[in-house]
Structure formats: C-alpha cells, structure tokens
Amino acid sequence: MKTAETESTVPPSVGAATILREWLRIGVTGFGGPPAHISLLRRLCVSERAWLAPEDFEDALATVNLLPGPASTQLAIYCAWRLRGALGAVIGGVSFIVPGLIAILALSALFLSADPPSWVRGAAAGAGSAVAAVALHAAFELVPASWQRAGHRRAQRLRWLAYAAAGVASAATLGPYLVLVLLACGVIEMAARAPGRRPGALAVALPVLARAAVPVVGGTAALAWVAFKVGALSYGGGFVIIPLMQSDAVQRYHWLTAGQFLNAVALGQITPGPVVQTVAVVGYGAAGLAGGLLAALVAFSPSFAFVLIGGPHFHRLKASPRAQAFLTGAGPAAIGAIAGAAVPLALALSHTWQLAVLAGAMAWLFGARRGVVSTLIGAALLGVLAAAIGLPVGG
Predict the structure, then answer these.
(1) 3-state SS of 295-353?
(2) Sequence-ordered strand ranges (E) for the chain
C-alpha cells in the first residue's frame, strides 16, 4: 500500500553515461526558455523512455514552480535525481547548464570587448532594442495561471492586483531591494489566508537579513550576493532576474552600461539552456571570465541544494497550504516586477531607430504571436543593417 512518503512509481536505475548524453543534448538544443525545456524533458522522461509516470512528472513540475530560482533547471536536476540519485542530479544538472554557459560566456567576450566591430555593436543595439518588449511578453504570459491561482473572491483578486502593482513600482524604483517586496507579498498572503496563525520565523527574518546584507557587500562579495538573489530569492520565472540585477549591475556597481545590460538580457534569451545564465554576462562584465563562472556557480548552487536536500520531501511542499499561499502572493509581485522592468529597459535605448525596432518587436510578439528567439534575432539583424547604412549604434 502506498503512503504519502512514496513516489507513485519507482523508475529504473539509469546509467550515468545515459544521463550525461541525454541531458547534454537538451542543454545544447534547449532554445526557447522554460516551455521548451519542460517539453524536451517530458518527451524524454515520459513519452520516449517511460522513466517517469506522467503524474510524477506533473507533480514535480508543480513543485518546482513553488520554489524560488529557475524552475526548468530544478526540474532537469530533479528528473535526473529520480533516475540515479545524487550522482544523476549532479551529472544531469551540469550537462543541462554547461552548453549554454559556454555559449553565453563566449558571446560575452565578443559583445563586451573594448572595441567590437561595427556589425557586432549594431547586432547588440538591435537585439537590445527588443528586450523591453520581451519583458512585457514574459509578464503577460504568466498572468493567466497566477490570476487563476489567486482565487475567485473579490478580496483575493484585489490583493493580486495590489501585489502586481507593488512589483511594477518596485522594479522601477527600488532596484536591489526588489527581493524584499517579493518576500513581503508572499508573507502577507500567508497571513491573509491563515489569519489565526503567524508566519514562520524564517519567513519574517528573511527580509530583515536581506536588508542587512545589501548595503555592506562590495567587490566579489557583491557579485556573489547578486547571483545568490537570482538563484535563491527570485520567484515567478526566469525573467524576474532582470529587475533583480539591473540596478546593481548598472547603477550601483557599474559593471555594465545600460546598453550592455540590454545585451546581457538578449544573450540570455537567444542561447540554449536556462535564461538565468544572463547572470554570467553580468559576472563577466564585473570580473571577466572568473566573474562569469563565479556568478553562474552561485546562481545555480541553490537549485542543486533544493533538489539534493529537499527532493525526498517535494510531495510535502506541493501539499503545503502555506507554501501555496506564499507563492500566491510572491507570484503576482514577480509578474509586476517583470512588467515594470520594461520601463527602465526602454529608457536605456539611446537612438531613435531603436524605438522603431522596439515597436516592431511589440507587433511581432503581441500581434503576430511569434516567439522570443525569432524576435531577438530579427532585431539583431535590423541592428546590423542600421550599422551598415551608417546609423549610430554606440551607447
């Protein structure tokens, strides 16, 4: 007889070499962000190999969406963990992450070099022009599921709108303190849904710890803190890392210019693997190759820890009303933050022709309903054309 402690199926032990090969293949071909990664993992683990039952996969997907950090990365690590324990988790996770990391660091060296060719500057300016549209698109894609999660009562819907509005405002004004808003919205919703109980001490302490940590770090510690926020304190999908990083990377520590940050976001979208690898571009801007590797290591370490330590207890998290309530509050705040990030991203554009590219990207994404990768590649090609006909591409 099954208990709540057991999985509904016990998958066969899969060889380490098989996990290395298959997860590396997904890491190389996984363009298109989390929806593409989830589809590839489902096809491999459920449809083709029958390693996991459909209900196990869906339960895992629901659970990782309750966790902070990159959900599709955590799902890739978890699936490999189910097949071969801790060794499988490490092999699968690294295989999924490394191809995109190599690609994005190589592109960082090209796009962030001291004097790149004019066509490179044009491609960067063109792709950067579309980033604000991509941010809005990412936010709107997340709204239906989050709105449904909020519930049907008027008070629940009003709180959802308030959390989203707080996210929009904080993304435009608070910069590195955005994480406090995400945490606060989650804790408030926990209290609202269980008025007779007080939030746990850790939930209350986290904002205090975050507030204390932000102003005192500097140098390598600052880079590690920014990467940690991306990997361990971000809710609502990969794009929420933009408002978490932008103020630190551009205004606070001056690791990147506003234009270079736009390039970083674009590179994170057009390379395979997790979107969170955008943090490696920020790290590269801060401290070269070593900085890029450090930022990636810190940002992805929480995902491995969540699975290796918490994997056996995922069923409890999925069934926890408090965890569900926290995400119900933090989720819309994250969505608002993603949408709000579009404002400073658009303001970072420095040339008139870039506004035309931004308008075209909006039409391509929202009117024609086309994908993000094609949007950014098309914008980059328009930037190359702009450079070729002599339009300004610096800034």
Answers:
(1) HHHHHHHHHHHHHHHHHHHHHHHHHCHHHHHHHHHHHHHHHHHHHHHHHHHHHCCCCHH
(2) none
Instruction: Give the residue among 309, 185, 180 at the shortest CA–CA distance from 244.
Output: 180
**What residue type is 152 in one-letter code?**
H
User: In the 8-state DSSP scheme, what is residue 200?
Assistant: P
At 342, list the tokens.
């579009």
Please state, in angstroms and rounded to a whole number, the distance separating the CA atoms of residues 315 and 16.
26
What whole-number distance in Å separates Cα of residue 23 and Cα of residue 21? Answer: 6
Here the tokens at position 70 are 């990159």
386: which 2 tokens? Answer: 């702009």
Tens digits of residue pLDDT in 161-208: 999 999 998 887 776 677 788 888 988 999 998 765 554 444 444 444
Q: What are phi and psi of 247, to 5 degrees?
A: -65, -40
Write the single-letter amino acid at 149. R
Output the pTM of the full model: 0.82
Q: Is 65 helix (H, G, I), strand (E, B) or coil?
A: coil
What are the C-alpha distances in Å from 211 to residues 39, 181, 204, 208, 307? Answer: 38, 11, 12, 5, 27
The string over 278-288, giving b where at least 16 C-beta atoms fall within 10 Å of a residue's C-beta and e elsewhere, is: bbbbbbbbbbe
* Tens digits of residue pLDDT in 253-310: 999 998 899 989 999 888 998 889 999 999 999 999 999 999 999 999 999 999 999 8
Burial code (b: 16+ CB inside 10 Å, e: under 16) for 161-172 equals ebbbebbbebbb
Q: Do the Cβ atoms of 84 and 16 come closer than 8 Å?
A: yes
CA angle 133, 134, 136 (to 5 degrees): 65
